[in-house]
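#dry-run=false #mode=assembly
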Amino acid sequence: MTELFTLKGIEQKLQKAGRKQARLYLFSNFIALMIISAYAALMMSQTVQKAFPEGGDSRKQMYMIFVLTLAGCVVFTVYAAGLFFRYKSRQIGVLMALGASRKRLLPGLMREVLLLSSLSAVAGALAGIPFVWLLWGLFRLILVDSSQMVLALDARCLLVSAAFFLLVVGVACLSAWRYLQKTNIMEVIREEHLNEPVKEPGRWCGYIGAALVLGGAVLGYSAPRLWEIWFHRYSPFWIGVFYLPVFPGLYMVMLHTVVYGWKSRKKHLYENTITRGMVKLQAKQTVNNLLIITLLIAGASFAIFYIPAGSISSLLEYKSAPYDYFYHYRLDQDVFGKEDVSKLAQQYGLSVKDWKEGEYINLAAGGILEAEDENHRLYTEYAVLKNEVRVLSEDTYHALTGQNEDVAPGTYLCLTNEKETNLFVIHTAKDLTNIVTGAHIETSFAGYAHYGLLTGIMGWIVLDNADYAVMEQGLTDEWKGRIVQFNAHGEDSYAFAGRLYDLFVDSFDKSCEHVEYYDRVEKLNAMQKGEEYWMESTELETMIRYDRRDTLEFKTSWMYHPKFRILLINEHLLIMGVLYMMFLFIFIVCLTTALIIGFTRCQTIALNNRYLFEDLRKLGASSVFLSKEVRSQCSQVFRMPAWVGMGTMYLLFIGILYANDGKITSYEGIAMLVCLGILVLTGGVVYAVYQRTVKMVREQLEI
Amino acid sequence: MLYVKDLYKSYEAGKNKYQVLSGVSFHVAQGEFTAVMGPSGSGKTTLLNCISCYIPFEKGSITIGGTKLAGEKEERLAQIRNTKLGFVFQDFMLLDGLTIRENILVPRMILGNVGQDAVQLAEKLAKMFGIGHILEKYPAEISGGEKQRAAVARSMMNHPMVILADEPTGNLDSKSSRAVIEAFLEAKEQMKATIFMVTHDSFAASFCDRVILLKDGRLYRQLEKKGSRKEMQEDLLGVIREMSE
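#status=ok
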């Protein structure tokens, strides 16, 4: 008996013959594992973990999109496994029909499945790390490089890869077992041709779906605030469930797309009837796939918007600042004066002009305190000593800005930028207190003054000269500060700015080594209560160290970080590089995943509808007609998710920008235009993949 | 050889229940070539699938060579399919990745003993059915008639008690159909094969010794071949007309 004439030999030969069909399965597993491993590796790397503030929105978005990508990858691996077994089912069915028992076939099938899934998954998982290195290296080479960009991976990311690997292999084995368990052999044989139709919904389905998407987005966004207003408590962690209507809504929109399309029936009678009829036969999986593709494209869009939204506003703001150099410091620090700066400037061929300086004081401001009682009920109360605030006199403000603001005694003006987009303004203070002497005045908010350089997390206010003089009395130097601003005459020098930055940081002692949020009034309050000041135990506070002056954390969060225009502009990408590149990476990964799912879905449509296309051909359909049908079917898979995913995110993005401060500034408008341009380019990529897919499907169908 | 007694089978689709077979009884003797005919929905294919052990039935009994199918476990049913039954399908069901020789040998491989005798038998069957020259070809490289004759050869590899054929000429032109029917006749003559064939084709059925006619899941009539093939075909057409009235 030759080895070939055994069931095992035959199984091996059939496996060899089925390599072409296994290719898509192998490819899907490989890509899924590579994407998840790469994403997990980058997400969990020390490089990214340090760059994304703990508990911050950007970190939450990164995790959220990871979950989305994971869901997408699970969908397409499960689907690729399903496709593969559909192909295998005919072989299995024939062998069963001829008398091979399930028990007999199981080992061979499991062997094949384990081999294919393990090999592809291991290869994908292993490729994930080099993929990250290569892509990150490419980013560093082409886009931005800095000491923060050095990739430091965390070995724990391998646990995620391992878990996903087990999932992929488990799904494959489960699918194999499920196919063998079908009781009706004829079903197994004909599995390849089985359809997955859905029950047709009413034509209202899509419109209700769109309303649910919109309603879910608005509800989800406003739920936390409404919760606090209605229940006087902080919103619970599960408040995100209010976004859930978005998902059934999207499903209904996709279902409507697949079943009816969006063109008017009266105007386009019987248009795309054949296409829709074919797609409807696989509607269940098609709708699921469209949903995942939409979410992934939405995730990709959201991630890529982060870059222009973050960079354009900042860069334009830096460029429009009235002075090249701006800094402030506490008076008890030994910081250089005008003469030292002039000397240094000369060394770099520059001269100092427009030098302006003025003093400010730090007071305790009253404000509304929001807290939880023992029953976790939110309550608000006015506290006389709530926050530290930096205070200028009318005269100093005039000297620095040239603006004549007349502040009435007993009132204060709050400083904000020209576009009034600075969120950290103090307008509820009714008291100001000298923290050294305990001197106190009553005050009230009288409006805004505009000077972008004097904005920050700790609020700046302007007082009437007389009030200022009263409050200044008895203050020690650690509660006083000086503001300096000047322009550099001549070719501005990056080297000069760098040197000045180093000298500036070197002139501070340890008492100023704090994060921008550090509030000495809050600390005093905590000490009086015998509590530890919460800010001191935060990760960010521990990262603010003078020897880490070139890090992202220091350059974005040090309390006295200077604003040197040339440094800010040139180093923006370096400072924000990790964040931007992570989001660029997420964009690439999500878009790739979405396109692969679209590609595999179209392949499935081709495979399942092969017989229908043959029938159409027999009925006299020309190649042109058949090509149009293929194009029409594939376009359903790519077009709607691209429109909905990108469109929804763009609208959401505009909504977020508007909701931040109740307006869209010109900078934000420019960022939106850039985002629109990116969407057009992304649409171009989707279109190119769609064209390629159509070509391949036509080849498969021999059209 | 094959006994079917009082067979019942129904399907459920949603809330509806469809009675497909309602007390069908007949028997096929060894070496007999029997056809089952009837309009669409009469239960022909369901009957064949029950005999093939592909689907379970609710009531009644099927006995093949003294073995009752009801109550047998999956493993045993597979064994019965492999050793006591041979199968010929409308769409051939040859495995694309295997040569015709390998395809013919598949039932023996499942049985687990492909010796020289099996290889010789495969060649003998192939020659008998006029496909000896294409043994090394793959299914994609041969015609529909050749594929079906290969399937007939495959069905006889384990010397089955009954060959079950489901519309074996359904996908073939008249010339190929005739060649396949002749292959069955050859099998019957030379190897004393018992053949049970479901068909719509009165021409193919007219070669049979007996034709069982089903209507609405019940046995409508049985026609025995008494005269020539042509007379049998005319009788069949007459009954079919009568059934449709």
